[in-house]
Design brief:
There is one protein chain. α1 links the parallel β1 and β2. The strands form 3 sheets. Strands 1-2-5-8-11-14-17-20-23-26 form a 10-stranded parallel β-sheet. Strands 3-6-9-12-15-18-21-24-27 form a 9-stranded parallel β-sheet, covered by helices on one side. An 8-stranded parallel β-sheet has the order 4-7-10-13-16-19-22-25. It is built from 2 helices and 27 strands. By secondary structure, it is mainly β. The protein is globular, with a radius of gyration of 19 Å.
Length: about 325
């Protein structure tokens, strides 16, 4: 039977901290701060989510209310914050989260839907942000990206998330002029890309580890490697709809190079269903793609299978689960 990693993190409130797998594994969020309770659905003011996110001290942010928070502007998150939606059903709409020049952020069990405006992403991570974990979130229908990671932001994990009703799903690496994005490292695992058109993800320059994701019914391609990208695709399920090309390669010229280059994808243990075509480059060695074990020694992975596909469909995205008790507040 297929299973999901870190099933034990919901036993205590702060059990999430440092439990991410992959490149975002060091994120502690608001582990060392007090609990901040969101008590209303206002865009700003006392007891609002925005008020907690702007505070400079570490905080573990929880919700005492369910409902929709209509953001009139990007919600900027300062360092050492956990935004923990367990125990409630909270949807952010209008705009999204902005993780700018911050570190140690955990975002868990929220919904993002209906972001409107130029350059409006569900979660925008730029510039120079690091040690970030996005877990069990549902994202759909934004005017730009659902999660964009650019401008030298790195050491990020996106896990158990659900993506739907969207075009340009996840951009990693801004454009060929931002050569500093060579530092980017992202892990994406146990996510469900459900009919999103493209960019699951699209990567420039950096390194991405994809494992145990389920991607189906894309409209252009599933995964794209652009200039100098290195993608290690491992034990994923790619199920085509009308469009069969799974992997795409775009050639671009880095601002500090003379020749244009595409990226590289290594596929290991992936399964391709309903005529999905692997489309691996020939004559350009997969041996030049990094291996995740160069950066971390363990990750919870199993063979791609129908059983795994079923579990991902059920367990990716927002979950109706209780908020765990905070062991730090329980008397001995």
């Amino acid at each position: 039977m297929a299973s999901l990693p870190y099933a034990d993190v919901d036993f205590t409130l702060r059990g999430l901290a440092c439990r991410a797998e992959g490149f975002g594994r060091f994120s502690i969020g608001g582990l060392n701060g007090p609990v901040y309770s969101v008590t209303n659905l206002a865009d700003d003011g006392p007891g609002s989510l925005r008020e907690g996110c702007r505070r400079q001290e570490p905080l573990w942010i929880v919700f005492e209310v369910s409902g929709c928070i209509n953001l009139h502007s990007y919600l900027s998150v300062s360092s050492y914050k956990t935004i923990d939606g367990r125990g409630q059903r909270v949807k952010l709409t209008g705009k999204g989260l902005r993780l700018k020049e911050c570190e140690h952020i955990i975002v868990c069990n929220l919904e993002f839907e209906g972001g409107r405006g130029h350059d409006v992403d569900g979660i925008q991570i730029k510039p120079n942000s690091k040690h970030i974990w996005i877990d069990r979130c549902s994202l759909r229908d934004y005017d730009d990206g659902l999660i964009d990671i650019t401008r030298q932001s790195t050491d990020i994990t996106v896990s158990r998330c659900y993506f739907a009703n969207h075009d340009k799903t996840m951009l990693i690496g801004a454009d060929p002029t931002h050569v500093g994005d060579r530092c980017i490292r992202v892990t994406i695992h146990h996510c469900f890309f459900d009919g999103t058109r493209q960019r699951q993800p699209r990567l420039r320059f950096g390194k991405v580890h994809l494992y145990n994701n389920y991607t189906r019914n894309w409209a252009i391609y599933a995964v794209c490697a652009s200039v100098e990208a290195q993608i290690h695709s491992q034990c994923n399920i790619y199920e085509a709809g009308e469009k069969k090309k799974t992997f795409e390669y775009y050639t671009e010229k880095a601002a500090d190079k003379e020749e244009a280059r595409s990226g590289l994808i290594r596929s290991e243990g992936d399964i391709f269903l309903n005529g999905a075509q692997a489309c691996l480059l020939t004559g350009v060695g997969e041996e030049f793609v990094y291996h995740p074990s160069e950066y971390y020694q363990t990750w919870t992975m199993e063979a791609a299978s129908d059983s795994l596909k079923g579990v991902i469909q059920i367990c990716a995205g927002w979950q109706s689960i209780p908020r765990p008790q905070d062991a730090m507040l329980v008397p001995s």
